[in-house]
Here is the input.
Amino acid sequence: MEIIIGAHMPITGGLSKSAERARELKFEAFQIFTRNPRGWRYPELKEDDIKNFLNASKGFSSINTHMPYLPNLASSKEEIYKKSVESLIEELRRAKKLQIKYIVVHVGSHLGEGIEKGKERVIKTVKEALDSVPCDCHILLENMAGQKNSVGSRFEDLGEIISGINDKRVGICLDTCHAFAAGYDIATQAGLSKTLDELEKYIGLRKVMLIHLNDSKSGLGSGSDRHERIGKGFIGRKGFENFFKAKELIENKPMIFETPVNDYHEYLEDYKTVMSILKNME
Ligand code: ZN
Ligand code: MN
Ligand code: MN
Here is the structure.
């Protein structure tokens, strides 16, 4: 089975460092923030940063950015909505300059306004952003962990949003920790086949363009978004052994670790765990 492994890489010291770090670990893919993920303000990308990044990132099979956390695409509060559209447009511009194809976004929270309103907002926001930036960049909506007021924890909702946007530049980033926390039991055979059926029914497996490979510090259906190192959480080694049987889902798709490491070198342990599981399956 052809698999593509990568991880979220720090950009400390410059954007191009992320690519150098991923290369050092011999990963084929990686994810970055193109700016501070916890703020609204950001500096322009400098020509030198772009040039260095383009040089350093040659040859990877997949690179993606992750949107900052403050924008909320599902909010009907006018001010947050406006700032969120602007932020998404800016991310598309950045991705275009950096020649990065995929942008992962959290669908957001309807803040008590109801899921229907939330979905409408997301559709409007993503359409507006895609219309403003002509490029081949894809927006990947990430399934949420089932937190209170979250939009996009259920495949039904994601499917509706995708049909509402109706643009081939939209897909899904499936986070294994989020899916598990939202109640999709990918750790057991019966749960996985039900999950895959629903994914196919409401969204379509081909729409899943990226996977966030994380274990979960919280239990099945807990509704809480806490990542864990692979094999060390509630999904566990056995659970991932089961998940990797979903060949139709994971083959040739970038799988990105967002596991809680103190230093990016520790991703190699997650990588080893994955490889040893896959080896045992042969
Ligand atoms: Zn995310
Ligand atoms: Mn994720
Ligand atoms: Mn998460």
